Amino acid sequence: MHSIDWAALTRLRQAFLDGTAGAKDYWRSESDLASYDATFGQRIRWKWDFVLGELKRRNWQPPAGNVLDWGCGTGVASRAFLRHFGTAALSKLYLSDRSPLAMQFAARQLDPSIPVWLEAKPGPAEVILLSHVLTELSPAVLEELLLLARQATAVIWVEPGTFAVSRQLIALRERLRGAFQLVAPCPHQAACGMLAAGNERHWCHFFAPSPPEVFTNGDWARFGKLAGIDLRSLPVSYLVLDQQPVAVTESVRALGRARVYKAHALVLECTAAGVRERRVTKRESPALFRQLRKNKIP
């Protein structure tokens, strides 16, 4: 890790927790941004790596043209996107944030050869990247964002895997699915099964893997205590939309983590028929049961 301003991280965390982060620009200095990028930002990067890796597994490719990192912060989303998909199809990268400090910091983290534009009020782009923004948006700003999203060819939206945020993302999925094909994580194009009666306690989320160094590095241990988080757990909710045709690659998607008991496990599955709980027994499916016991959902 770089030199961390722990006091700045404590202040930023409090703003995120008490819900005031959306009220005004919370970046005060380069130190704020660098410290965030090395800690909270890295955890967000691992989530983006998980999501973008899933897209590559599905053989999805972004459309050529401009890419907009909306609410870019330190630029974690655009850096991950370019690392996974490269720059061959990129015309311009737009970094957009209410904070000039954040846009400038994000731009400096990129290769100088990349054509970068800083835009406080950006126009449409072929690809829009949205990362951890829902908890900071007023209803009016959210509507402006949705208008911008509808003008894109593809949208990649990554958020924390909490119940409240996932439910918000599900509601937005329903508003946008008529204009787009659903690429991921959905295995179908129908209404979200989470909205059916009986599923009110569930939410659509997954767990990205944490790298080994978080368990051996002292700074990460200190960060975990400061943030009050389990470093082993990286819950993520996401939505990927594309106006281009989408090839169906799977009909079932497991959600969250299985509930594992002595002789069986319960797995929440999403299909076109709805969201249902599947019972996996140790006796009938020993290999799958072992995977689930290790928190590995296929």
Brief characterization of the structure:
By secondary structure, this protein is α/β, with parallel strands linked by helices. It is 35% helix and 22% strand.
Structure, described:
With 298 residues, this protein is of the alpha/beta class. The chain folds into 2 domains: 6-250, Vaccinia Virus protein VP39 (Rossmann fold), CATH 3.40.50.150; 251-298, no CATH class. 35% of the residues lie in helices and 22% in strands. Strands 1, 2, 3, 4, 5, 6, 7 and 8 form an 8-stranded mixed sheet that branches. A 3-stranded antiparallel sheet has the order 9-10-11, with helices on one face.
Helix and strand pattern: HHHEHEHEEHEHEEHEEEEH
| CATH H-level homologous superfamily name of the largest domain | Vaccinia Virus protein VP39
Which structural category fits the helices and strands?
alpha/beta
Largest sheet: 8 strands, mixed
- CATH topology of the largest domain: the name is Rossmann fold
Q: Please indicate the percent range of residues in DSSP E strands (runs of 2 or more).
A: 15-25%
Helix content: 25-40%
Q: Give the CATH class of the largest domain.
A: Alpha Beta
The name of the CATH architecture of the largest domain is 3-Layer(aba) Sandwich
Mean pLDDT: 91
Terminal-residue CA separation: 32 Å
**Overall tally of structural domains:** 2
Uncertain runs: none
Based on CA inertia axes, which overall geometry fits?
Answer: globular
Number of strands: 11
Radius of gyration: 19 Å
Q: What is the helix tally? A: 9
